[in-house]
Amino acid sequence: MSAEATNPGAPSRRRARARIDLRRLGRVALLGPTARDRVPDAIGHVSEAHRAHHPDADLAILRRAYVLAEYSHRGQFRKSGEPYITHPLAVTLILAELGAETTTLTAALLHDTVEDTEVTLEQVRAEFGEEVCYLVDGVTKLEKVDYGAAAEPETFRKMLVATGNDVRVMSIKLADRLHNMRTLGVMRPEKQVRIAKVTRDVLIPLAERLGVQALKTELEDLVFAILHPEEYERTRALIADNADAVDALAAVADRVRAVLREAGIHAEVLIRPRHFVSVHRVRIKRGELSGTDFGRLLVLVGEDADCYAVLGELHTCFTPLISEFKDFIAAPKFNLYQSLHTAVAGADGAVAEILIRTHQMHNFAEAGVIALGNPYTAVDAPDGSGAAAAPEAADGERHRDGERADPTRPGWLSRLLEWQESAPDPDTFWTSLRADLAADREITVFRADGTALGLPAGASCVDAAYAQYGDEAHACIGARVNGRLAALGTRLGDGDTVQLLLAQDAASGPSPEWLDHARTPAARIAITSWLAEHPEGVKPPAAAPRAPVASTAGRRAAANAVAELPGLPEATARLAGCCTPVPPDAITGFAVRGGVVTVHREECPAVSRMRAMGREPVEVRWGRAAACRVTLVAESFGRTRLLADLTETIATAGAAIVSATVEPPSEQRVRHTYTLQLPDAAGLPALMRAMRDVAGVYDVSRAQHPVGTI
Q1: What is the pLDDT of residues 281-300, one digit of tens each?
Q2: Known catalytic residue: 115?
Q3: Of the candidates 172, 101, 167, which has an alpha carbon nearest to the alpha carbon of residue 412?
Q4: Which of 70, 101, 115, 436 is catalytic?
Q5: % helix, strand, coil for the chain, step of 5
Q6: Which of the residues in the chain have pLDDT under 70?
Q7: Which residue in the list 70, 116, 176, 645 is annotated as catalytic?
Q8: For this structure, is 496 an active site residue?
């Protein structure tokens, strides 16, 4: 922004210039030598680019903004020696070429006036309105004299909060950084590296999330040249040595055009050379590059259905590489990018990557949120300004047909705005921001009630808990993922269903191990804060056993002989302790030493292992005996009298406890394992329901692993 602004001979920029009369300047702009229907020659190229996207735009406000910017920056020069006005002009041109509406361009022309000149926000508001004032304020840096080393992170925090209300703030910042990166060569090498690292860690991920690929790709190349000069030069030489690679792609493009023409599909087929970083990544992935690796084909059509028609023709007439196919139309990326990606091989074996999208998708893929115009009004103003509602609503909500007009707010941006409030320390905010933006993908999981929850890829149940419950997640002790119990450290996948389990004890809190599983800044900040406030940690529940306790009744060899074995009348049947089958489970048996047959449930893992070893199963079936032995596992919260209540429930059901094991509490959870002798197998379902009804017990299941004492 203003890092390169200099004002030779002025001891203080705040005292160097008298107060500007904006009304007088406005009259000069309107009544001066420039005709009313023209803009000053210096921004003629900006007006042409703007009119290409908004033919009916009223350029009067741009004329006034340029006159103010030129006057207020007069006498200031960039480090390159150019008049400083060239910078806001370049930033405005970048945005105009991407299709930004008039209000954004006006703010871009003025974006450094409040920061570097005597112009005040009040003057901007009075002359250009609330919207322009808000955008200018959003990109204005905080003073180092006031914030010291925290000025940069706090400036980004300020910009992000402003972006939460109006995404056009970040659009201007990205264009501003792009022009500064283009002219960074005049800076000291160490300053170039520092700015490039911030661009890499913060600005490029933000450009990706806002979908502004045109800015993102150029920023990547500029950062690549500064931070990895040797790799950059190697890549540049590689591209130069393969300048004729476009011919190979042109041949494929001609064949694609012919195929689509024969199919009656109207499409535009373009060759898109890869940018430097893309070539570098492909070289690392594939090693030696062929001619078609230096670019991709872009097929543009009119309707969504045409995209799939093109795909069908290409996969019919060429050999597709199925592993390279991605459908981002049916499942858009979290930055709303839509396109079909595929790769096909021709008769000569050359592989070409192809992107298929509509013209509208392409416009959004290149310009992202900039292509939305003003996303906070239902319909853009006729002049293309998009000027409507000012961003006074703190939550930025403007609805169109019941939907939020700004598609970026509900996801990553909302989460970022929420957790930054819990990070008052600038260092914590800066570190957390970089970590949050490092996630290059987003997943959607579903709560038990069917509502969606957006999380970064790699998020765990811990992250889901804090995203859903905030600080109440301190009491979380486990989760069900897709209906099955899961530890809090379980990583979630796209489309998973998550039900979080909270302890009844309000004093419960997270353990330090949770930090190993927390992926989101919101979770990490909340856990770290709680641990700092409770250095003594969480005391285990008073009633929860501190060590395993086991009691085993005398064992009778034939106590479990409840199966009849055709052909082996003398054999003794014994129920396996690993799965403890009971009627009417489907069972199978395996002969062991001493004329004994061990009986397993069909789904027991031991059955697969035995068969893999070549052991022949023995046919078994249930006899008339109703008594059975079974092992149950109860998962519960730690609380007082839990063990007493469970054993009382078991006794009430008429079951005898053969053995019991209670594991030490882990993350406020207690696991009980009971081996029970039931007088009648038919009573097992009722017993399990009764155990689940005990306060604090959230699951009872049959054992599926060896228990040692059975």
Answers
A1: 988 887 778 888 889 999 99
A2: yes
A3: 167
A4: 115
A5: 45, 15, 35
A6: 1-41, 145, 374-411, 440, 504-507, 536-572, 594-595, 623-626, 666-668, 704-710
A7: 116
A8: no
